[in-house]
Amino acid sequence: MYIRYEVADRIATISLNRPEAANAQNSDLLDELDAAWTRAAEDEDVAVIVLRAEGKHFSAGHDLKDGRWPDSKKITLEWIYRHETRRYLEYCLRWRNIPKPTIAAVQGRCIAGGLMLCWPCDLIVAADDAAFSDPVALMGIGGVEYHGHTWELGARKAKEILFTGRALTAEEAEKTGMVNLVVPRDQLDTETRALAANIAEKPAFGLRQAKRAVNQTLDVQGFYAAIQSVFDVHQTGHGNALSVSGFPILVNLDEMKSKIK
Fold this sequence. Notes:
Blueprint: E1 3-8, E2 11-16, H1 27-42, E3 48-53, H2 77-96, E4 102-106, E5 109-111, H3 113-118, E6 123-127, E7 131-133, H4 149-153, H5 155-164, E8 168-169, H6 170-176, E9 181-183, H7 188-200, H8 204-220, H9 223-245, H10 253-258
Parallel strand pairs: 2-3, 3-4, 4-6, 5-7, 6-9
Antiparallel strand pairs: 1-2, 7-8
């Protein structure tokens, strides 16, 4: 089991539980995570949902050695498109629109696909050791599966982290408005739960409608259409990599892994 699920005091806590792999996301982890989100969304005794992670890092992103991937000689762009549509695009959009307040608690590294887990949440509490990065351009890939970058960071800061691959500190992320609160690492769970408890006291219908109002405003501004169109841009990156190397990204996986300590 890659996900732990607990409910107490009207707060559902979903924990990524693959710390030995820096909570890298294989297909099973994502499927279990989607099931946990659905369970919490449908439980009338749950008012607020918290997403957190065990171990030093929130998530090192996608597990590019996922056993569900076909042999490199058999992989096709069609297979990648179908796999990523379900587990990346559709899952993220569903999590974003859960009709309950959601909070992500982030510590350590949050890399590439890790952003895909915290950005659909309504609020983000970051430990002071958190670092957010998306080195997809360094992998030879342009767009991403869930392009929240422009909305979360603003156009120029989004370009900066994509062009350079550098990580934003928790303090920088708070300044952009991407993070709501930065707390000491040893207080991350306590402070996140206190925030969740505060929100859980509020009328459920009012919270639901407030969330709906904000999300619909973003959609009117083009968020949903942008997410869909950039997903297709991302797939052209995979196609190019396949044509060049026979693998969907242009990067040495062992070299990338060595950078995550």
